[in-house]
Amino acid sequence: MSTATEEHTHSFQAEVRQLLDIVIHSLYTDKEIFVRELVSNASDALEKMRLKQLTEKDIFEAERELAIEITTDEENNTLTISDSGIGMNRDELVENLGTIAHSGTKAFLEKMKEKGDNNADVIGQFGVGFYSAFMAAHKVEVHTHSWEKDSPGHTWSSDGASGYSIDDKADAKRGCEIVVHLKEGMEEFAKEARIKSILEKYSNFVSFPIKLNGEHINTVEALWLKSKSDVTEEQYNAFYKFTAHAFDDPRYTMHFSADAPLSIHALLFTPTENTEQFGMGQMEAGVSLYCRKVLIDAKPEKLLPEWLRFLRGVIDSEDLPLNISRESMQDSALVQKLNGLITKRYLKFLEKEAKNNTEAYLEFYKKFSRFLKEGIATSYEHQEQLAGLMRFESSLEEAGKLTSFSEYIDCAKDEQENIYYLTGMSRDAIESGPYLEAFKARGLEVCFFTEPVDQYVMDALPEFKGKKLVSADRGEIELDDVATEGEELDKKAAKKLIKFLEKELSERIDKVESSGRLIDSPVAALTPKEAPNAQMRAMMQAMGQDMPVTKATLEINPRHEVIHGLSQLVESDEDTAKLVAQQLTDNALLAAGLLENPHQMAKRMNELIAKLVEKK
After folding, report:
1. What is the chain's percent helix, strand, coil content, to nearest 5?
2. Is 247 annotated as a binding residue?
3. pTM: predicted TM-score of the whole model, two decimal places
4. Continuous segment of H or E residues that includes residue 467
5. 37 is in an annotated binding site
6. Among its keywords, does the record have Lyase (predicted)?
7. Which of the residues 263, 350, 532, 576 has an alpha carbon 20 to 30 A from that of 83?
């Protein structure tokens, strides 16, 4: 019997030569990707073999363990990746490695579907990912034997340029053994430590054992593909710490799978702490994207909105379009769809938590409300869901107790069309101002927002469930009359006083009105509809931005004794009346955050005190 090997030399298909040129020179930005690709292909071949074992009896080396063996050889500058998978015969070598018109995976899937088996858990297109090896190799050898007993073994060899040869190999084992002869300058991929780091980065969750120089590398389970009932809390906590490089346990764990409209397996964790609160800088995105347990991108852009950057975990989708490179997701529309689906699912999860475990949700909200508010200001499509998750104090709740917009609407009067709110530095500051009293007198609840970011949020949120959100310090609000104490200034005197005030205050006030809004305060400055309020102006000043000139409407309380006294001063002592009018205006503008020069206010107060002392 002859032992001579039979050799056939082939030229690459033209499309393959073009592909090789792209792969080697421009497709991948990181050379290490080729290791991931070859391991993914090995996993693909093993999965095919596992399915064959369920349907076929005559299998070559049937007892061989389904595993991936990787060997580094620094002396010979080679990297060898072996699998005990389905292997290839001569025709399959030509079809899968010599052409791009066919895909081993595609053909296999079609064959499995013909048999009625749609559970083939395969990864990528073998004939494409394989060529990435030539980024690092000057020569690649593939020693292979098909699963079929009567098929001989072969060696496929190529320099990635001139073509390839196929030789007979009598001692080939079932599966594929790929020997990567590394180029000069690529010696790092013959080092065990370098390959181990790549495997731990990309291939930790491959279903089959990966052994590097005999050491089992992928020991962590892909929990996101398991049923929730099969995973313990301890396993979730350990997985969170592993993937997020965290030391604490997660605050929330969301684990779900979906088949439509996209195939998704997700395991997302909410950390216990918000590190941004500690001044540690903005968090980086922490949800990795996988396809069938192979890492596609550790920090994919736009997979989730930026305001969900605090989330940690894994999203795995079989629907990713990985036509040429797992390095780049080429269908941005699909990524946007993933973004929308996962975001809505997470917000629904929070809604459920807020309802079923209120105290725990409030603890979460105290830590992470900034992110939700950022979402309201930047993600219109999620505004209503996010607004429903907001919690805040209000005028009808005792200090420290938080409520929501939904609870506000449930308690509102039937005919009430608006949700009223006020922003300020604190609850005390809001309650001591002149704007709340009119609403309290009418039994209208007012929401309190006391964080600097809140004004941006409320400006971005026009309504909630059909109810308009209206700032209670705005001049255009119309309120029903309410019975109040005190005699109202007669119309003639009120008209004269308003004329006096408009003349004296023309440079500072747009107009003066008499109304029934005020209860305990003599005057109030009402901010125009389009003008920034006190909190917004304070933020703009802190950022060094120029302040727009804003003239407020001055409302006077015709029942207040100070207004009665001012009316009399207009008749008896006009100079003092002018000082009082200016001082009242200063007080009102200060409360509205519109006072430009507080030094003038102090000077005017001293003049008023001097007049009082003189009269004594």
Report:
1. 40, 20, 40
2. no
3. 0.75
4. strand 467-471
5. yes
6. no
7. 263
Q: Is residue 130 part of an annotated ligand binding site?
A: yes
pLDDT-based confidence at residue 452 (cuts at 50, 70, 90): confident
Distance CA 174, CA 61 (A): 7
In angstroms and rounded to an integer, the radius of gyration of the C-alpha atoms of the chain is 36
357 is in an annotated binding site: no
514 is in an annotated binding site: no
Name which of 608, 552, 616 is nearest 583 in CA terms.
Answer: 608
Q: How far apart are CA 458 and CA 376, in angstroms?
A: 9
- CA 608, CA 614: separation in Å to the nearest integer? 10
CB 206 within 8 A of CB 218: yes
pLDDT 10s digits, 129-186: 788 899 899 999 999 999 999 999 999 999 988 889 999 999 999 999 999 999 999 9
φ, ψ dihedrals at 125, nearest 5° = -120, 115
CA-CA-CA-CA torsion sign (12, 16, 18, 21)? negative
- DSSP for residue 23: I
Query: What CA–CA distances, in Å, run from 46 to 40, 86, 105, 179, 207?
Result: 10, 6, 12, 18, 9
CA distance 277 to 365: 13
**Taking a C-beta distance cutoff of 8 angstroms, is the pair 484, 441 a contact?**
yes
Helix (H, G, I), strand (E, B) or coil at 448: strand
Is 340 labelled a binding residue? no
330 falls in which pLDDT band (50, 70, 90)?
Answer: very low
Bridge partners of 511, per DSSP, are 553
Determine if residue 428 is labeled as part of a ligand binding site: no
User: 525 has which bridge partners?
Assistant: 554
Would the CA dihedral through 298, 304, 310, 313 be positive or negative? negative
- CA distances 551 to 172, 477, 478, 589, 594, Å, are 88, 17, 20, 10, 8
Q: Residue 486, annotated ligand binder?
A: no
CA distance 166 to 396: 83
CB 390 within 8 A of CB 372: yes
- Counting every residue written for the chain, the total comes to 616
pLDDT for the residue numbered 163: 87
126 is in an annotated binding site: yes
pLDDT in tens, 192-219: 999 999 999 888 889 899 999 999 999 8
41 is in an annotated binding site: yes
129 annotated ligand-binding residue? yes
Nearest to 65 by CA among 44, 41, 88, 85: 85
- 565: annotated binding-site residue? no
* Whole-number Å distance between alpha carbons of 403 and 464: 15
Q: At residue 349, what is the residue type?
A: F
Q: Is there a binding annotation on residue 128?
A: yes
From first CA to last CA, the distance across the chain in angstroms is 133
Q: Are 160 and 22 in contact (CB under 8 A)?
A: no
| Strand ranges of the sheet holding 418-423, from the earlier edge strand across to the other edge | 393-394, 446-449, 418-423, 467-471, 463-464
Taking residue 603's Cβ as centre, other Cβ atoms within 10 Å add up to 10
Confidence of residue 538 (pLDDT cuts 50, 70, 90): low
| Of residues 82, 329, 36, 44, the one with CA closest to residue 201 | 36
Has 544 been labeled as part of a binding site?
A: no
Burial class (CB in 10 A: 0-12, 13-18, 19+), 431: middle
With tokens 């007979």, the residue in question is: 168
